[in-house]
Amino acid sequence: MFSAFHKYTYLITSKFVHPPPTKTNKMAATEEKMEVAVRSETETVGSSEQLEEEEETFFQDIDLLLEYGIPKEDVHLLKNAGINTIKGVQMTIRKRLCEIKGLYEEKIDKIKTVCCTIAASNGFMTGLEVADQRKQVFKLSTGSSNLDRLLGGGIESMAITEAFGEFRTGKTQLSHTLCVTAQMPGANGYLGGKVMFIDTEQTFRPDRLRCIADRFNLDQTAVLENILYARAYNSEHQFELLD
């Protein structure tokens, strides 16, 4: 993950963050965005309600374990380890849970069993339900029309995309471009969002982002303010940043 041939950019989008204003005609752009936001809210109210329900299911609080007999002390240990949801427990492998001081195999087995019980109703869904969920997926432009076409429209949301290759093949350039395009309005009512950039090779360059912002006629300062940056020194540090 941390070799010279791999680059990861994590994009976190939020419907509450507006895209950066253009350098010219900002008032007109603001009015246009307001119209887009109102129209999008009207057209996608059903999808928003569905998304909220899915978020409630996905982000079930870890305190639910208390109702199933898991001691408060054990729940506290999980929280201290950065695990705050039922889904978080399910997504954490047993080996890592065993590394939490105070938790041993018997306790972990019980916690895992309880989490499966809580999430049992969320295990399977029909193909039609999956199709409805897929309607919420949008694409982020890579800045290259040819690459977008190869990817079927761009980088897909709700997924992890890996870019790998030899030295100086454009991985860093792609990451920086996505930092800007992720802040621009897109399909399915997407209004632009913030970006989290975890740098494993100290290649983040704000000056490069300014040039890319100019290319898309966006305000440089607003673009940089919408990017959250952190330097990761090893894989363990990267996990700590994500927690």
From TrEMBL:
Domain RecA family profile: 136-243
GO cellular component: condensed nuclear chromosome
Key word Kinase present: no
GO biological process: chromosome organization involved in meiotic cell cycle; DNA recombinase assembly; DNA strand invasion; mitotic recombination; reciprocal meiotic recombination
InterPro entries noted in UniProt: DNA_repair_Rad51/TF_NusA_a-hlx, P-loop_NTPase, Rad51_C, RecA_ATP-bd
Keyword match Nucleotide-binding: yes
A Pfam short name: Rad51
Single GO MF annotation: double-stranded DNA binding
Keywords: ATP-binding, DNA-binding, Nucleotide-binding
Protein name: RecA family profile 1 domain-containing protein
Organism of this sequence: Callosobruchus maculatus
